[in-house]
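Can't attach files on this board, so I'm pasting raw text. These are the components:
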Amino acid sequence: MPKKKELTYLDVAEAWPRLAASDRARRLKQLPPDVGHEFFLDLSAADQAEVVLALQPAERRPWVRLLAPDDVADLIQAAPAEQRVGLLALLDEPTRAEVTALLAYAEDEAGGLMNPRYIRVRPEMTAAEALSYFRRQAQERSGRDTPTYAYILDAEGKLVGQVTLTDLIAEDPTTSVARLMHTDIVTIPAEADQEEVAHVFAEHSLVAAPVVDAAGRMKGVVTADDVVAVVEEEATEDIQKLGGSEALDAPYLKTALARMVRKRAGWLASLFLGEMLTATAMARFEHEIARAVVLALFVPLMISSGGNSGSQASTLVIRAMALGEVRLRDWWHVLRREIGAGFALGCVLAVIGFLRILVWQAAGGLYGPHYFAIAVTVATSLVGIVMWGTMAGAMLPFILRRLGFDPASASAPFVATLVDVSGILIYFTVASLVLAGRLL
Amino acid sequence: MPKKKELTYLDVAEAWPRLAASDRARRLKQLPPDVGHEFFLDLSAADQAEVVLALQPAERRPWVRLLAPDDVADLIQAAPAEQRVGLLALLDEPTRAEVTALLAYAEDEAGGLMNPRYIRVRPEMTAAEALSYFRRQAQERSGRDTPTYAYILDAEGKLVGQVTLTDLIAEDPTTSVARLMHTDIVTIPAEADQEEVAHVFAEHSLVAAPVVDAAGRMKGVVTADDVVAVVEEEATEDIQKLGGSEALDAPYLKTALARMVRKRAGWLASLFLGEMLTATAMARFEHEIARAVVLALFVPLMISSGGNSGSQASTLVIRAMALGEVRLRDWWHVLRREIGAGFALGCVLAVIGFLRILVWQAAGGLYGPHYFAIAVTVATSLVGIVMWGTMAGAMLPFILRRLGFDPASASAPFVATLVDVSGILIYFTVASLVLAGRLL
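---
Top answer:
Structure tokens for the assembled complex are below.
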């Protein structure tokens, strides 16, 4: 066991999920200042807000001032409404104005992601004058995070072009910026969703992009390093939803157990309620099962095949939607593909299932005199169930998006639950047709 | 219908998945040159290789030369071995040397991701001399993608520091670079996995990072815009695996149907074979089912609850592993959490299931005189099944990683298949104990 002499980053990280807000704040203060600052900067905005509010009002100011304006805005959005004015009051005047402007945007929009500080120059300035702006930035920020571009705005604040520092030093220092600037710029609307921002960056390999409002006025800059974090965060949310729980919004080990159970219990209980319909569906076929118990043996195999094929289809479609490869209007194209895929996959499983029953029968005579009819029932049902599962899985994300929900909610468990009931209906209906006059 | 006058990007994209290699190459040539180039650059390395090889040897050179050295390396890695020398021969001498060096790295390592071209200066140079390197780059590349840093290497090629352009212009032009440079640099080992590279970028908010070999010699630069694409690609792979299919390695609509069916059939058939054990498990309880058909009605509900809770747990653990939040040695910590979570979630479902049977019984008398014993059976089994599903789902990613497999293969369908059989065993065992002397 390590001695309790000096706390380390790891000590606090290990204990964090189990600590109350006041203990969190106390531990943070016990860390050496630079480690404490690093730990604080690594926290989610929600945790930062909680810790700051757990401190005495007089202690709060230095922690809040550690953060860049966009991060302060996130912290304030994560704090309870009645605390926001007090937190804003901790900032110096110019930062407060910037943060207030950012608070008008949602956290997951380009406007909430951008840095409102950037180098702005006028078109009539010379290269030498523009250079002096970069120089001043470099002195203020001691060489860290130097901006890649300066932006040229007209008298109304509209973006007309951008120059890199290299453009400025490459030319005659008396040339006007207007002559040097590039005008074919990829801009991002302030209300663009952060997922959209990520696609634009990935597609055009951008290092930084200006954010503009509807009138073309420049509002701030989004840089690729912010986007890396966004892409990871969005993927994590989608993956957690695909696993059939709500997004945790915090690292797994930093999420308190009670909170995690709440995030998972909602979906699990809903799926359970939905899945209860299988008991109702099975009850409709109670007589058939009583007469031919052998039919019941294959129920789990049948319904899981529908669920698995549906989960494949829904996952592929959800990811293609998230990447912008598939749009709402592509639903018909996707449906045609998935009908083909579902039929092919259903046939593969049907052949395996058919052979399995014949082989087991030859080995042990497990399925009685009607084994061949049972094999036909299983194989035929599989084609129907897998096709139906595939189609339902592929279409569910479209339906969810059309209704305004997140398509990623069409998780594997959700799709499985949906197609389990229909799988039972398909299987027993096929069985009644094939086995009528024989077993049933 | 649009007239077949001039092909557009979208026309070709729509038809692409259904076209043979030779038709793909022909369509590409029919596009206006700039559109064709854009389309080619947007293709996966595998598709680029296929198209280039479908062209006449004399036509190949301009297409290959469109690509940056790191992208050429990817294309060559995607081409059949016997074609690689021929493709390399299309490059000019210095690019060929660079590409050959890159081919020594795997495509998903930092070495395969980096750009081998960067600005290197000596420590004894002055700021003004170093500036002239940036200026030359700017003229060569006409302002696009200007590098953020120049790197200072010693006589052996070891990285000793970095400067930004802003550092250079901010100071007296006769200062030596050694005095201006920053030495606290985050470097990336050439053999680092691209997922690791992404975490380093996200954690430190990097714009660019130097790649070094084991001896500290600088090999190239990775920039944040490349990392954005990597993070999207890694998340896509994980998500597709989590949905229970192989990673497609290409956009959904650009993947040919036959290829997509192959990618999905393997897992689906394996899961089907695994799921066949449920039929074997059910057969063991054929007598119990024959005596109490009512037991069969709840089988789908029981096994799906195990599958759903397992899929939640495995997904959360897999994502936490991918983000580096959870490591192999955390397995015990995770197991303890998941036992707690599984117990709590199992109790929630048990209460719902118990009430459901009592209410249905009160409404219709569906479950006969022993309804209370059945309700106890269902509720008790649920606690056991959900706990077991949660534990199995949480531990499977650890086991897979320990054995050297990708933890993301522990997909929802895989976990469900694993726990379905044990769910049946738990349910019928509880039933035999509770119902002995009553129904059974």
